[in-house]
Design goal:
By secondary structure, the protein is mainly alpha-helical. The chain has nine helices and no strands.
C-alpha cells in the first residue's frame, strides 16, 4: 500500500494545482492496494464533490485559460500543455487566438472562472463551438458543467497513468 506522501505525490496533480483532494482521498481510506484509474478517480471525485462550493471554485480557478496567457508564456502544467497541444490549441491562427481570447475574457467575467473542457479528442473548432454554446448557460448550469469537465479531465489523466479496472 502506498504511503500518504507517495499517494499525494503521484495523484496530487490530477486535479489542477489541488493536492488537497488527494490528501483527503487518502485520509478517507478505502483505496485499493493496487490503485486503478477507476478506483482512484472514484476516491478523488468523492472528495471533490464533498468539498465546499468555495473549494470547488478554487479548483475551477486553478485551471488555465485555453490558449491563454500561460500557454503563450510556456507556464502551463505539463498535463495542461500536452492536452492543449493535442487539440491544436498551440497552433492557432492570429484570428483564432483573438477569438479564444475574447471568449476567455467574456466567459471569465460572466462566471468567475476559466472555461474548462476536457480537450482530449477534441478539435479547436469543436472546442470553440462548445465555448460559444456554454457561454449562454446560467451560472448554476455552468458551475455544474465545469465540475463535470474537471472530473473528466481527472479520469483522462488517471487513465494515462494507471490500468482502468
Amino acid at each position: 500500500m502506498m504511503t500518504r506522501s507517495d499517494f499525494v505525490e503521484r495523484f496530487g496533480g490530477v486535479f489542477e494545482h489541488s493536492p488537497w483532494i488527494a490528501e483527503r482521498a487518502f485520509d478517507a481510506g478505502g483505496l485499493q492496494e493496487t490503485p486503478t484509474a477507476d478506483g482512484v478517480h472514484a476516491a478523488l471525485v468523492g472528495q471533490f464533490r464533498a468539498a465546499s462550493p468555495a473549494e470547488q471554485l478554487g479548483v475551477l480557478r486553478a485551471h488555465p485559460d485555453l490558449a491563454g496567457k500561460l500557454a503563450i508564456a510556456g507556464e502551463l502544467t505539463e498535463d495542461s500543455r500536452n492536452e492543449q497541444a493535442g487539440a491544436g490549441l498551440d497552433r492557432l491562427s492570429p484570428e483564432e487566438h483573438r477569438r479564444f481570447t475574447a471568449l476567455n475574457t467574456a466567459y471569465t467575467e460572466k462566471f468567475g472562472f476559466p472555461f474548462i473542457i476536457a480537450v482530449k479528442g477534441q478539435t479547436k473548432d469543436g472546442i470553440l463551438a462548445a465555448f460559444e454554446r456554454r457561454i449562454d448557460n446560467t451560472p448554476e448550469q455552468e458551475f455544474e458543467t465545469a465540475l463535470r469537465q474537471v472530473e473528466r479531465i481527472a479520469l483522462l489523466r488517471l487513465t494515462a497513468m494507471l490500468p482502468g479496472a
